[in-house]
């Protein structure tokens, strides 16, 4: 497969193929509809997509032409996930089946699929039990994210939820302590991360949102001594995730 086709390997286009993909329950990241293409079959597809909570984006016909490599898309395309999503319950159940305290990484509106893939890769390397992402305004399990994960997406449970604050509340009720990565937090090495834990990584530009930060039990920070006062999201996630692994390894000795 050439590189151009690889790039578009997660794109389903044409009214019948998109409708069947939605109807079948296949994991769909989003549906792209060309401006002005909202009558007849397209309306039926969009109604079904809304029913299933799939994100719908209106784009220019030229963008669809590019996404579909010039093929006849009939004004609509779907971006399919490279893997089926798990649930939060499945992530916690997996931790329980291993006899381990849950360790989860929560991504609050992380938008870059390369960051998502890198974090999934790190999560798999440190033995995290799952990654949780939000359904809207977030990168999903697209081809780009899967490629950036270097294959780790096949082994990591990823749950996509409608509401991150509500999910945090659910985790806390199950005994999971939730820590926001925030520059005003306590030093990460001085925080006990050995129990059931979830680390929240925020948006690349805005960080953790105020509502999500409020729901967390505490905030942890990385020391900054240079002129730049923030790290790339995937780098910050990597440092914090390895601190969790370090602490847990030290406790088990």
SSE blueprint:
Blueprint: H1 3-7, E1 11-13, H2 15-24, E2 28-34, H3 40-51, E3 55-59, H4 61-67, E4 76-80, H5 88-97, E5 103-107, H6 113-126, E6 130-134, H7 143-148, E7 158-161, H8 164-173, E8 177-187, E9 197-201, H9 210-215, E10 218-221, H10 233-252
Parallel strand pairs: 2-3, 5-6, 5-9, 6-7, 8-9, 8-10
Antiparallel strand pairs: 1-4, 2-4
Q: What general form does the structure show?
A: elongated
How many β-strand runs? Answer: 10
Question: Number of helical runs?
Answer: 10
Uncertain spans: 1-8
Mean pLDDT: 89
Query: Helices and strands, in N-to-C order?
Result: HEHEHEHEHEHEHEHEEHEH
Helix content: 25-40%
Cα Rg: 20 Å
Largest β sheet strand count, sense and barrel closure: 6 strands, parallel
- Termini separation: 48 Å
Report the structural category.
Answer: alpha/beta
Beta content: 15-25%
Q: Strands of the biggest beta sheet: in what spatial order?
A: 7-6-5-9-8-10
Q: Explain this structure to me?
A:
- The structure is a single chain.
- This protein is of the alpha/beta class and 253 residues long.
- Helix content is 40%, strand content 21%.
- Strand 5 (103-107), helix 6 and strand 6 (130-134) form a beta-alpha-beta unit.
- Helix 2 (15-24) runs parallel beside helix 3 (40-51).
- The radius of gyration is 20 Å and the shape is elongated.
List keywords for this structure.
253 residues; alpha/beta; six-stranded parallel beta sheet; four-stranded mixed beta sheet; 10 helices; 21% strand; elongated; disordered N terminus
């Amino acid at each position: 497969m050439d590189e151009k086709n690889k790039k578009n390997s997660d794109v389903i286009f044409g009214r019948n193929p998109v409708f069947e993909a939605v109807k079948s329950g296949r994991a769909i990241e989003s549906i792209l509809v060309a401006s002005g293409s909202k009558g007849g079959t397209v309306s039926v597809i969009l109604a079904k997509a809304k029913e299933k909570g799939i994100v719908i984006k209106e784009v220019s016909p030229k963008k669809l032409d590019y996404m579909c490599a010039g093929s006849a898309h009939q004004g609509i395309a779907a971006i399919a996930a490279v893997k089926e999503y798990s649930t939060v319950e499945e992530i916690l159940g997996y931790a329980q089946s291993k006899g381990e305290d849950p360790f989860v990484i929560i991504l609050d509106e992380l938008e870059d699929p390369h960051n998502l893939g890198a974090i999934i890769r790190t999560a798999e390397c440190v033995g995290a039990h799952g990654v949780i992402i939000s359904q809207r305004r977030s990168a999903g399990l697209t081809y780009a994210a899967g490629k950036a994960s270097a294959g780790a997406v096949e082994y990591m449970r990823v749950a996509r939820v409608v509401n991150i604050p509500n999910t945090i509340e659910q985790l806390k009720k199950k005994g999971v302590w939730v820590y926001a990565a925030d520059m005003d937090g306590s030093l990460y090495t001085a925080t006990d991360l050995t129990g059931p834990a979830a680390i929240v990584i925020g948006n690349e530009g805005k960080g953790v949102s105020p509502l999500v930060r409020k729901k967390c039990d505490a905030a942890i920070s990385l020391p900054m001594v240079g002129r730049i006062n923030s790290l790339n999201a995937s780098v910050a996630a990597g440092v914090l995730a390895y601190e969790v692994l370090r602490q847990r390894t030290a406790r088990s000795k």
